[in-house]
Design goal:
There is one protein chain. The chain contains 16 helices and 15 strands. By secondary structure, it is of the alpha/beta class. Among the domains are: 5-82, no CATH class; 94-257, no CATH class. Strand 12, helix 14 (405-410) and strand 13 (432-437) form a beta-alpha-beta unit. It is globular.
Length: 488
């Protein structure tokens, strides 16, 4: 698949000619006639045709569009998002599975230790070289089981259709889960996330399963851009926090440019824009993941922490801890393949402390802080970015909760609490971008908000809110406040 081109073949079905809907006779006739004419045209020509079941003219030209042109046309994107499956309320039903490495016939992971020397010699592109460095790091510190990611047998064809000739997926959301029972509610959260990606985005979503169950309703037919993978969990392999599975998923699923999503998130219109921005910002000269700003600074010297218990703030144990180069970020990173060696190095310090030469301040933070020998992925990402003198931070594209989308839907903050202001980093408050909702742990609440957004493609609505104003683009925001510390 050539990432430079976007094939936009949109089936406009505003008259629901399928799924068994009741239609007036006139509407049925229109659908039948349009369908028949389309099929007759297909027989007469070797060219592909798009069936327009509305009987109206298309508002755009059908065919191939350069990606930059297509993604800049908001009306086209909204029409593409508008078509699709209806939102379904997910059932808490999951099925037990046999993991690929447990099969008698065996299975082949995308990567394994030791690195294949012949393949390394063949690696011609930068993505392969960066992955090789990350793989070599894990193999050298006795983490072979954590590099093995297996594409589920039912999703092999989907995976093959999405990968380039070099075996990479160009752009994808990456999520992770570990269902522990047939009625694990995380399965409902994840189902709504995958539904929202399929409705509001044109990108694939890679979900890695680290548990023994997967949602029963998941099939390649229902989710044609889902790639389900399986891998071993850091919990069972090295006794670390489950959330480090997010970082190993970023490392070893072979996604060139990615956006990490948690199960308790769902996405809205416009998030695809961030893929292009991520590729622009994480480069060979800036090889780090980029986090969205957190809703609280976690800085003990900032005024916004005065109303919280002391443990809400982050305190260094060692006086040698690196200085903060930016405000605390939320662990919903974007990245490109350039960040893979950095991610491998810093995660190995936590996942294999016996075999790595981690900084002394990191050892002290783990052993003497409030961590009981374990730290979270978000702690590591922030500390490591400060240690690397990283300074880039996204504006908050992951709202603190689904209810914040009331503000977006009505384009008014009246009566809303827009948290995030602090005297040190964001004296005017943080900028919000209504691309995703976080803390979406109540499926019924998420379903209600997604229902409001599902068919509501008002192109006058702006996604960025900052300092009492709404902005249509990141450029408009930067022009309004050139000193703002976050990017859009």
């Amino acid at each position: 698949m050539d990432s430079r081109m976007l094939a936009a073949v949109v089936l406009l079905a505003f008259l629901p000619c399928h799924r068994g809907h009741d239609l007036a006779q006139e509407a049925q006739a229109t659908c039948s006639t349009s369908l028949l004419q389309g099929l007759q045209g297909l027989k007469r020509s070797s060219m592909s045709v798009t069936l327009n079941l509305t009987g109206e003219s298309f508002p755009f030209h059908v065919g191939l569009s350069h990606q930059h042109v297509a993604t800049a046309d908001m009306r086209l994107l909204q029409l593409m998002a508008h078509a699709g499956n209806p939102l379904e309320f997910p059932k808490p039903e999951a099925k037990s599975i046999t993991r690929p490495w447990e099969l008698a016939s065996g299975a082949t992971p995308l990567l394994k230790c030791p690195p294949d020397a012949s393949k390394r010699e063949m690696a011609k592109n930068e993505a392969d070289k960066n992955l090789d460095m990350a793989l070599a790091t894990y193999c050298s510190v006795h983490l072979p089981s954590l590099v093995e990611f297996y594409v589920d047998a039912d999703y092999q064809q989907t995976y093959k259709s999405l990968t380039d000739t070099d075996g990479w997926i160009d752009n994808a959301f990456v999520a992770y889960m570990g269902l522990t029972s047939s009625d694990d509610p995380i399965g409902q959260e994840m189902d709504l996330l995958v539904q929202s990606v399929h409705h509001f985005s044109s990108k694939p979503v890679v979900v890695t399963n680290f548990g023994g169950f997967v949602p029963s309703s998941w099939t390649p037919q229902r989710f044609p851009r889902l790639v389900l993978m399986h891998a071993r969990s850091v919990v069972t392999e090295v006794s670390q926090s489950f959330n480090f599975n997010k970082l190993t998923s970023m490392l070893f699923t072979k996604v060139k440019t990615g956006i990490a999503l948690d199960a308790d998130q769902w996405v809205n219109h416009g998030l695809d824009y961030l893929f292009e921005r991520a590729a622009e910002e994480t480069t060979a000269n800036y090889p780090y993941p980029i986090l969205p700003v957190h809703w609280m600074s976690r800085d003990p010297d900032s005024d916004d922490m005065s109303g919280y218990p002391d443990f809400y703030a982050f305190h260094w144990v060692s006086p040698q801890g690196p200085r903060r180069t930016m405000r605390w970020g939320h662990a919903h990173p974007t990245w490109t393949h350039y960040a893979l060696p950095w991610l491998a190095k810093w995660t190995s310090f936590v996942l294999a402390p016996r075999w790595t030469d981690a900084p002394s301040w990191l050892h002290m933070q783990r052993s003497l802080g409030n961590y009981d020998g374990r730290i979270e992925d978000e702690d590591l990402l922030n500390m490591a970015l400060w240690a690397s003198n990283a300074t880039k931070q996204w504006c908050k594209f992951d709202t603190p909760g689904p209810s914040d989308f009331k503000v977006y839907l009505r384009q008014s903050v009246e009566g809303a609490l827009m948290i995030g202001k602090d005297k040190l980093w964001y004296p005017k408050g943080i900028a919000y971008i209504f691309f995703t909702a976080h803390d979406a742990k109540k499926p019924s609440e998420s379903y209600d908000y997604l229902t409001s957004l599902w068919s509501n493609t008002d192109d006058r609505r702006k996604a960025i809110y900052y300092n009492g104003r709404w902005f249509a683009t990141g450029a408009d925001l930067a022009s309004y406040d050139p000193d703002l510390r976050c990017m859009a």
